[in-house]
Amino acid sequence: MIGAGAFLGIDIVTLDVLQALLPLVFFFLLFQVLYLKLPRGYVLNLFKGIGMAFVGMVLFLQGVHVAFLPTGRDIGAFLGGSHLALLIPFGFFLGFLATFAEPAVRVLCREIGKSSGGYIRESLMLYTLSLGVAFFVALGMAKVVYGIPFQYIAIPGYLLAMILLWLSDKDFIAIAFDSGGVATGPMAVTVLMSMAVGAAGTIEGRNPVADGFGMIAMIALAPIIAVMLLGIVFRMKKGAVE
């Protein structure tokens, strides 16, 4: 039986989702009346889909608040307390899983596969993004464990991304920067960020604000570098064929 605590604050979540969806519905209705003139059956199906999306978003975000965020904090506190040696490898493992399960990442990979006509395989992109994020999450956990200042990772990382812009195949550049956006979805933000904050709050000498945050910026950077490195491999293969 689901406890009452599972629905605590669901009214606020529902209001937030309504505020997000209502403007989209309004603009669709405006275009429908003035320009689109779509059939009634199509509009009815569309509103059924919006209704399902509304229910799904409310349930998902409520689950995030009552499950993912506290779970991430508790895991981080546990590893940061008595199992510090496991924090970095566990961060790699969880970073891979969170990205692999991220719905937005899968949608992007599917669209890349379709748009490229199979030239860039969906599975290849999915594993590239997952491994890239996994590496940077592990690096983020190392930052927490050893107290590495964030700028020592962020500045070289973005400089590397700028250099890769000139070396990577041009087909991969825009994909790389879009990938950085989709990788920072709800799975990564809720689980990985909260885990880093929980660990930083437990390790002696660490500040949850100064050391725990920065993980999302690193997750956003990871796919950019990983995809452009993949673009370099494709560029080398093109050169070998030519």
Automatic annotation (TrEMBL):
The keyword Transmembrane is assigned to this record: yes
Transmembrane segments: 20-38, 50-69, 75-100, 124-142, 148-167, 179-201, 213-234
Keywords: Membrane, Transmembrane, Transmembrane helix
Pfam families per record: DUF1538
Record-given protein name: DUF1538 domain-containing protein
